[in-house]
Amino acid sequence: MRRPKPEDISSAGQDSFLDVVTNIVGILIILVMLVGGRARQVIQNAMPAQSNRVAALEQEVDVLDQKVAVAESEVEELAVQAQTVATAAAFAGEARLHLATAVSAATVEIERRKQEAGAAQTKAAEAAARRKELETEIEHCTLEAEGLAHLPATTKEVLAYPTPVGRTVNGEEIHFRLGEGRIAYIPIEDLFELAKSQTRRHSGSIAEMASRIESVGPVQGFSLDYVIEAKVDQARGQVLIRSREWVVRPVGTGNGETIEEALSPRSRFRQMLSAVTPEATVTLWCYPDSFDVYRAIREDLHRLGIPTACRPMPEGAPIGGSTEGSKSVVQ
Questions:
Q1: What CA–CA distances, in Å, run from 141 to 147, 148, 154?
Q2: Has residue 136 been placed in a domain?
């Protein structure tokens, strides 16, 4: 058998390769055509669904845009309403303030009128009570006048006092305390003598005497408190010691005599008056609760012709004097 030539083998192989390539290309073309047709069919089938979906989405977007527009409109309306409410609230606050002020003023006015009405009622009640008292008093006076008109005429002794011309007492004085409805003799001179004796016994330096307070008594129911004052007389070279202030205090209560006891013949008051000289003056220290006693004692002293001086005393005030005090005035 004859063997082929090498060049023939090469040509046959090349033809086979070209055929294979051609076949493959053909196959590929066919596949491409098939894939293209299939893709076109798929696209054609998918396009309506995609278009429907897009249309639905666009419709939803339109609906949402409408809702957004409506919501924005509602928000604007709410903002306007909120502004209106705020303005109304501001006006309401001012109106409330004005109303509160008016209520407060009305309350004050009502209270004032109540007070005025109460005062008027009180005055009316007081006037009615006073009118009732005056009517009762007029009735009593009328009855007394009618009774006196039918009484027989009587005479009564009336003491006539001289015109009160006052003069300062410079001579001897006898002091009495009128208090608690009683009259008590005040032994001022005896207490002063005791004070002088005690001051001489206890005298020390001038500084001590200038600020020293001492007491003596009791004597006949009274004690004496006094302040020592030392004064240097440089012209004479002397030291003067004197009492700057003094106070007489009763020891205990119930001192003295009642008016009935004092005006009896053997009373202590009568004994003290028996020693009175024509130049002496009786000074009566009278408290508010003993003016009746003072009037009775004054009438008795007037009958006896004894000069009398009165020293009215406030309730609770002590009997006392000082270097700057005033002297008694006799009438």
A1: 10, 10, 20
A2: no
